[in-house]
């Protein structure tokens, strides 16, 4: 299993970012920065991609590359939950959030983001791997159970509306409901 997004997956994210004219982008699970740099390529002028990754060497690599190439990408090192809570306390808001990180924590990421108003009203959140190789529906292993729990929790949340794209390993698109909740 590879941890890097495919070129076509990054192109899909770029499509959404262009269409929504996103300026403030959050990537939870930056890894080597391929997705972050791809999103930065098409974000609105003056925008910024903020990434989160637990591995210091990946953070250092991406931050160094961004500085050298004058790309507005910054990766914060640490547990995604801890960094998200810090970003929420600082009042950070995002019009695009991409989640591709530690699968057992997806429910907690969603709660922190939604309960702290981190997703702007016209924004979109995209969560990767929600089908977990087709096993999430059968709940056939621990990660499949985590993804099924996440999908069920988000589907039941009246604040959002979702669409599941059965491409790649399942992309869940999340946006605020139009009913003002």
Automatic annotation (TrEMBL):
Lineage, top-rank taxon, reads Eukaryota
* Assigned keywords, A-Z: Methyltransferase, S-adenosyl-L-methionine, Transferase
Tagged with keyword Methyltransferase: yes
GO MF, any single term: S-adenosylmethionine-dependent methyltransferase activity
- Transferase recorded as keyword: yes
Family, per entry: Belongs to the class I-like SAM-binding methyltransferase superfamily. Cation-dependent O-methyltransferase family.
Entries under PANTHER family matching the protein: CAFFEOYL-COA O-METHYLTRANSFERASE 3-RELATED, O-METHYLTRANSFERASE-RELATED
UniProt name for this protein: Putative O-methyltransferase
User: Which species?
Assistant: Stichopus japonicus (Sea cucumber)
């Amino acid at each position: 299993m590879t941890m890097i997004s495919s070129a076509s997956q990054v192109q899909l994210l770029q499509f959404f970012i262009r269409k929504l004219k996103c300026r403030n982008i959050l990537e939870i699970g930056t890894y080597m920065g391929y997705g972050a740099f791809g999103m930065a390529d098409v974000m609105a002028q003056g925008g910024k991609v903020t990434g989160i990754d637990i591995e210091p060497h990946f953070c250092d690599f991406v931050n160094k590359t961004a500085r050298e190439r004058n790309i507005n990408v910054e990766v914060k090192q640490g547990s995604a939950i801890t960094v998200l809570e810090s970003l929420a306390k600082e009042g950070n808001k995002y019009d695009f959030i991409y989640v591709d990180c530690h699968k057992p924590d997806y429910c907690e990421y969603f709660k922190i983001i939604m309960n702290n108003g981190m997703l702007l009203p016209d924004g979109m959140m995209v969560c990767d791997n929600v089908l977990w190789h087709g096993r999430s529906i059968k709940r056939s292993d621990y990660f499949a159970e985590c993804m099924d729990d996440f999908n069920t929790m988000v589907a039941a949340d009246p604040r959002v509306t979702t669409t599941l794209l059965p491409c790649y390993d399942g992309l869940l698109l999340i946006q605020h409901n139009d009913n003002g909740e």
